[in-house]
Amino acid sequence: MSIYEENLERAKDYLARFKTEVTGHYINGAMTKSSSNASFDNLTPVDNTSLGKVVEGTVEDVDQACAAAENAFADWRTMPGKERKKLLNHFADKIVERADEIALVESMDCGQPLRFMKAAAVRGADNFRFFADKAPEARNGQSLHQDEHTNFTVRNPIGPVGVITPWNTPFMLATWKIAPALAAGCTVVHKPAEFSPLTAMLLAEISQEAGIPAGVWNTVNGFGEVVGKRITEHPAIKAVAFVGETVTGSHIMQQGAPTLKRVHFELGGKNPVMVFDDADFERALDAVVFMIYSLNGQRCTSSSRLLIQKNIQGPFLEALQARVKNLRVGHPLDPETEVGPLIHRSHFEKVLSFMSAAKNEGASIAAGGVARDDLGAGNYVAPTLFTGANNQMKIAREEIFGPVLTAISFETEEEAIRIANDTPYGLSGYIWTNDSGRALRMADRLDAGMVWVNSENNRNLPSPFGGVKSSGIGRDGGDYSFEFYMETKNICIAHGTHKVPVLGR
Ligand code: NAD
Question: Is the CB of 266 under 6 A from ligand 1?
Answer without folding.
Answer: yes
